[in-house]
Design goal:
Number of helices: 12
Number of strands: 55
Radius of gyration: 30 Å
């Protein structure tokens, strides 16, 4: 088997058209123009298209007065085109490729009856002159030819402008024009959208892919990377929509065996402990065919995957971690009820277990296991009324996720924070604290109308509406009922703390002391004098307090997360939306004005409405111009807006009234002072402020595309993107008090209680700037309360946070992308792309309840927070090539390279990795973000494959993948700061900034065998 003359072009296609398709149905369009021998249009010609992928049999259209036959709602695949008319010879094209969400075109010239020749020519190209949408399409042909993994995540790296995850094989790839690093210190975007046959299988909490299907079932994976039209809700990240096979009129199926072992892997380089010996057993089988020919088709599949990684630690311990132990079941029925009525039902499930023992930075006794699974199904119905199409679909996605500790006999977890590198013992006291059960549910009802009409040109008008509900049921706990964060020494003072939870909770602790007479009296009796207004303590009053009380579990008491009682909580997000989208063709111009309107309501677990948005207006408008009028080149422009609804973790954060009860406490004056109480309070943990706005991304694109020499196509496109209205949770007590903000500045730079007049000029400047970060108290009005009332509630411990937008928070991206495609000719083809990227900003927050509104030193308005975005690259290059011999042998190669990613000097706060304030006060007003960068990265992978036929129906393919065939084992991750990667201290001394903690895996070999019938 090898790629057809169109398949490589499809893989590399940088443009994915809007076309005239049903929502997420995986359909495409085909325009056929019929001419006579003199090049004049032929009206009334009969055009018939057929394909083994098209249920319902042949489709017939008669050419209009422009000689065009317009076919929409075609299944992706190769179509035979046949044209006939009285007085002319019949002409045909054997294979015209139809692509998802794209308009393919073909021109046929008819010769008169009696002519000696039949001349047929086609202008099918990779340039769709009707669209501005960017992306690529990956089919089963590419998955079986190129050396890519057998998951939908791994194939995303084939798309231009997509950055593979750094240092995390299970993380999300992301756009070069996007946030390539989350604030948990790992690579990966959290604003992608993943669909499988129209079911949104994106985690509503983490923004990650939550289901995988066998690659043999994929008809096409459509990866959109920009200019997404209004019919899709679409978050601001990349958009992956998988269309599965529907079956066919002939029975077919196959078995695939994919195998890796430690014996098929090169030796791991000395000291690269994060890289292990991998063993994979991947078996799949599928069967499809007709129940009733042309009327009722079925598909069924089962797959099992077991992926293990054995790591050898410097202590001499060797252990095997489970990356995946899963079973994937899939079934699909497609029923052509009548020529105008189509119904389909799809179901899949994949129970999936894994643990983190393969992560060497996790000490064995702290390891945790995860069990997940769930059910996903979609029922869809379509009807055609002449030039009007109606689509209705209902989808359901459920995912259960249970995390528990593997070992629970090592005492409570106790994380040590320090200003010095930790010893191996200090880095891993106690067992895993994890005990968590989450159940996600997503239900969506959607209806779409597609109307074809002529009015001053040709229109494909779409209208659609949807209504949905997302829920997250969580039951959480803490192993041993408590988890500590302690100091390594008894010398740390309130005014000079290492990064950690005590430092982040100082403002709340201060509020509790001031509002609790007994605590205030205790502090005064201990020799501390309140100097604030009205006899209140301010932060600088405690600068000399030393945390020196011994924790029997190790170190010195600082902070604890304390479990009180267990309960379940189910907050909700309800959505409603509608859109209008047109594709208006007038001569050489195609205009695609579109408008989305979506609104959201967030409910607490008791049904209480937390916040309702109005309809958010998201215009998306594009225009293309066919430069020569022959469909071979175009210029185009697009402007659009994407609304990014907040994740369910933040909804849970605000609306868990009946959740498990925990407290977050700081140890002072020989007592635990509760800074935060969560759950079981009967009141919300946080409120949405009245002026709350959902995050948004604006995108502008302009580009040019052309093809030449029959087999080549070239494109260049520039993109500007801007993320704004970024959301965070805010500490109301901190940000309504200039005194408290000044206290943070003084503690950060060791000013103590020195009178303002005695401060140096740089110190005064910093104090003034921090005081200027204060927000008007009414900014935090919300939940039916004024800002002053919410401040009083916060001070009384009745309210922890307010959800509000970050003033000044922004991310800006500029990219310039070049791509070149060579369609298959003379047995070979290929694709290459280069992306130049400039990503600037001051916020790492992506709606996951972080610290930019909690701790002043992370405020995006501070000058040092600006600069290159962490995780961004300066350039990205990739290419793939293939060559085949007629005797059945073929070779395919992928190559990826980038500049290395930017990162900032950082510190660890809880589980987050956050940009540090500069230690030199003179650097506060200079950009510091992203000033460091990892080394350049590149890797090449190779596939050698041989196929043969046993008979007309039965055939086999044997392949060998050589991953990282040059055996590069360079560092892919560097520690961002002191103790940021504290768990890997015993591995690489990664407590030291800029020390490697992750490396490329060595060359490995992967064997596979397919049997098809």
């Amino acid at each position: 088997m090898h790629l057809s003359s169109f398949r490589m072009a499809r893989t590399a296609a940088i443009l994915v058209a809007m076309g005239a398709t049903a929502y997420a149905a995986g359909d495409g369009s085909l325009y056929v123009t019929v001419l006579d021998a003199k090049g004049q249009v032929v009206t009334g010609a009969t055009v018939i298209v057929t394909s083994p992928t098209q249920i319902g049999g042949a489709r017939t259209v008669v050419t209009d007065r422009e000689g065009r036959a317009r076919f929409i709602r075609l299944s992706p695949g190769e179509f035979k085109v046949q044209v006939s008319k009285e007085g002319f010879q019949t002409a045909s094209l054997p294979a015209v490729e139809v692509k998802v969400d794209q308009s393919s075109s073909a021109n046929l010239k008819l010769q008169p009856v009696g002519s000696a020749t039949v001349e047929v020519f086609s202008t099918v190209t990779t340039v769709d002159t009707t669209t501005v949408t960017a992306g690529t399409q990956i089919t089963s042909a590419e998955l079986e030819t190129l050396p890519v993994g057998r998951t939908q995540l791994s194939t995303l790296s084939l798309a231009p402008g997509v950055v593979a995850t750094f240092g995390n094989t299970n993380g999300n790839p992301t756009l070069a024009t996007g946030l390539n690093r989350d604030n948990f210190g790992s690579g990966g975007g959290r604003n992608n959208t993943y669909l499988v046959d129209g079911v949104d299988v994106t985690s509503p909490e983490a923004g990650t892919l939550r289901t995988t299907i066998a690659p043999e079932l994929i008809q096409v994976q459509d990866v959109k990377t920009g200019a997404i039209t209004a019919e899709y809700t679409a978050r601001a990240g990349l958009f992956s929509s998988v269309t599965t096979k529907a079956g066919g009129n002939e029975f077919s199926g196959g078995v695939t065996v994919d195998y890796q072992s430690a014996s098929l892997q090169d030796k791991v380089g000395y000291g690269k402990y994060d890289v292990g010996e991998r063993s994979v057993r991947d078996y799949s089988a599928y069967f499809m065919g007709p129940i009733i020919k042309d009327r009722l088709w079925f598909v069924g599949s089962i797959q099992t995957v077991k992926d293990e990684l054995t790591v050898k630690l410097p202590s001499g311990e060797s252990r095997t971690g489970l990356n995946e132990d899963s079973k994937r079941f899939f079934g699909k029925l497609t029923w052509q009820i009548s020529p105008n009525d189509l119904f389909s039902f799809t179901y899949n499930t994949n129970p999936f277990d894994f643990n983190n023992l393969s992560t060497p930075s996790v000490v064995t006794r702290r390891a945790a296991k995860t069990e997940q699974g769930g059910n996903r199904w979609i029922a869809a119905y379509s009807h055609q009324f002449s030039d009007l199409f109606v689509d209705v679909r209902y989808s359901h996605h459920q995912e259960d996720n249970k995390v528990t500790g593997l070992y629970t006999n090592a005492g409570p977890q106790n994380n040590i924070v320090s200003l010095s590198p930790l010893t191996p013992d200090q880095a891993s006291l106690g067992n895993s604290s994890t005990r968590d059960l989450r159940v996600y549910k997503k239900d969506l009802l959607r209806a779409d109308l597609t109307w074809l009409f002529d009015l001053a040109g040709k229109h494909t008008m779409k209208f659609g509406a949807q209504s949905g509900e997302d829920t997250l049921t969580r039951t959480s706990g803490i192993n041993q009922n408590v988890a500590y964060e302690s100091f390594d020494a008894n010398t740390y003072s309130w005014g000079a703390l290492p990064g950690g939870n005590v430092k982040s909770q100082r403002t709340r602790v201060l509020g509790v002391i001031n509002n609790t007479p007994s605590l205030k009296s205790t502090a005064i009796a201990a020799g501390y004098t309140p100097t604030g207004t009205g006899g209140a303590f301010q932060s600088s009053d405690f600068n000399a307090y030393v945390f020196n009380e011994v924790n029997p579990a190790g170190g010195y008491y600082g902070y604890r997360n304390n479990f009180v009682s267990e309960a379940s909580s189910t907050p909700k997000q309800k959505t409603q939306g509608f859109y209008v989208q047109d594709q208006w063709q007038v001569g050489r111009f195609t205009l695609s004005p579109g408008f989305r309107f979506d609104k959201y309501e967030y409910e607490a677990d008791n049904g209480q409405s937390l916040f309702k948005t109005d309809y958010n207006f998201a215009p998306r408008v594009g225009a293309t111009y066919d430069v020569k009028g022959d469909g071979h080149s175009k210029i185009y422009a697009y402007w659009g807006r994407y609304i990014d609804p907040i994740r369910l973790d933040m909804v849970r954060f605000t609306g868990s009234l009946q959740a498990s009860s925990t407290t977050e406490d700081v140890r002072m004056f020989n007592t635990w002072i509760t800074a935060i109480s969560r759950g079981a309070k009967g009141t919300v943990d946080a409120v949405f402020v009245d002026k709350f706005k959902l995050p948004k991304t604006d995108e502008f694109r302009i580009g040019y595309a052309t093809d030449f020499a029959s087999i080549y196509s070239f494109e260049v496109v520039g993109t500007l993107r801007r993320d704004f209205d970024i959301v965070e949770d805010w500490d109301i007590g901190l940000y309504t008090s200039a005194d408290n903000l000044e206290g943070e500045a003084r503690g950060l730079y060791g000013m103590g209680t020195t009178p303002y007049a005695s401060l140096s000029a740089p110190q005064k400047r910093v104090v003034d700037y921090f005081r200027g970060l204060a927000m008007p108290v009414e900014y935090f009005a919300g939940g039916g309360y004024t800002g002053a009332q919410n401040l009083a509630r916060a001070n009384a411990g009745q309210l922890n946070f307010a959800l509000a937008n970050l003033p000044g928070g922004v991310r800006k991206y500029k990219t310039l992308d070049f791509s070149l495609t060579r369609r298959e000719a003379n047995n070979w083809g290929g694709f290459a792309s280069v992306s130049l990227v400039d990503a600037q900003g001051n916020s790492f927050s992506l709606g996951n309840a972080d610290y930019q509104g909690d701790v002043a030193q992370f405020d995006p308005r501070l000058p040092y927070m600006n600069g290159k975005l962490d995780g961004s690259v300066d350039w990205l290059a990739k290419f793939n090539l293939f060559y085949h011999w007629d005797m059945g042998l073929q070779v395919g190669m992928n190559f990826n390279a980038n500049s290395g990613y930017h990162y900032s000097a950082s510190e660890k706060v809880g589980t987050r990795v956050l940009n540090s304030a500069p230690t030199d006060i003179n650097q506060v007003f200079t950009e510091q973000a992203g000033k460091f960068r990892t080394d350049n990265f590149w890797q090449g992978d190779l596939r050698v494959q041989y196929g043969w036929k046993w008979n007309k129906q039965l055939r086999s393919e044997l392949y060998l993948d050589i991953i990282n065939f040059t055996n590069r084992q360079e560092a892919t991750g560097l520690s961002e700061g002191l103790n940021v990667r504290s768990g890997t201290t015993t591995l690489y001394n990664a407590a030291v900034a800029h020390t490697p903690y992750a490396f490329q895996a060595p060359r490995r070999y992967q064997l596979g065998f397919r049997l098809k019938f």
